Amino acid sequence: MRAFLLVRDDREFLCHPGEELHTDLGVVDVPEDPDPGDVVETHLGEPFTVRSLRGPDLFDHLERTGAPMMPKDIGVVVGETGAAADDRVLDAGTGTGVLAAYLGRLGADVLTYEARAEFAEVARENMALAGVADTVEVRAGDVTEELDDLGTFDLVTLDTADAPEVVARLDDHLVSGGFVAVYSPFVENARASHEAAVEAGLADVDTVETIQRAMDFDDRGSRPSTRGVGHTGYLTFARKP
């Protein structure tokens, strides 16, 4: 069994089979092959429950090399593009690798580019933790320098400053009906990507902002939370006719 969580109330620990875990409630000899739902006790007799890693857990526990794409944005990417098993995906701007990991866990074959070699190495370790090292290949380098040799893809996802340049060249690298999705933290990049898609002759070009607000419920009433960040970035989508 690969890595899993030991959970109790608001405590949550990432564990690897066979390791010794030190917690504020005692030491756990982590079992080699537990089943989800099994209860493991510390040397003080304090119980923890085994839980498998899922997408939201990966967002919390992957080693970060920058601000990862939020689950709400990943959900929009998957919903708008129909990303699915057996898709061939080109991803650029790997960073922590949360998006690549989500797509890999859907069953897609992902090739992802990270410009910084040290970040790429962390991303490889994160893919192993996510259980997708066999289906997500992390390359260190500039996707613009290798794009012409990469063939065609069902989906291209970009989180890079030079995304408009890549979008302008995608007509030869998307299958018919294939999608490109660009994540842009700044509206200027989103606009440039949108315009590049239009000029490249791609169809169904659309740019959206996703806002998510938690709700607060108390004795006084119910209202959107005043805490947290609603805006994370802009998403531009386009499709090859």
Explain this structure to me?
With 241 residues, the protein is an alpha/beta fold. It folds into 2 domains: 4-52, Vcp-like ATPase, Chain A, domain 2, CATH 3.10.330.20; 57-239, Vaccinia Virus protein VP39 (Rossmann fold, 3-Layer(aba) Sandwich), CATH 3.40.50.150. The chain has helices at 55-61, 71-81, 98-106, 117-130, 143-146, 163-167, 187-199; strands at 4-8, 11-15, 20-23, 26-29, 39-41, 47-52, 88-92, 109-114, 136-140, 153-158, 174-184, 203-209, 215-218, 221-224, 234-239. The strands form 4 sheets. A 7-stranded mixed β-sheet has the order 9-8-7-10-11-15-12, with helices on both faces. It has a 4-stranded antiparallel β-sheet with strand order 2-1-6-5, with no helix packed on it. A two-stranded antiparallel ribbon has the order 3-4. A hairpin with a 2-residue loop joins β1 (4-8) and β2. It is globular, with a radius of gyration of 20 Å. The termini are far apart. The relative contact order is 0.12. The mean pLDDT is 93.
What is the makeup of the main sheet?
A: 7 strands, mixed
The residue fraction in helices comes out at 25-40%
Distance from N terminus to C terminus (CA atoms, Å) equals 43 Å
Kindly report the CATH topology of the largest domain.
Rossmann fold
CATH homologous superfamily title of the largest domain: Vaccinia Virus protein VP39
CATH class placement of the largest domain: Alpha Beta
Strand order of the largest sheet: 9-8-7-10-11-15-12
| Number of separate domains | 2
Query: Count the strands?
Result: 15
Helix tally?
Answer: 7
Order of helices and strands: EEEEEEHHEHEHEHEHEHEEEE
Mean pLDDT: 93
Architecture (CATH level 2) name of the largest domain: 3-Layer(aba) Sandwich
Portion in strands: 25-35%
Low-pLDDT windows of residues:
none
Evaluate the radius of gyration: 20 Å
Identify the overall geometry. globular
Structural class: alpha/beta
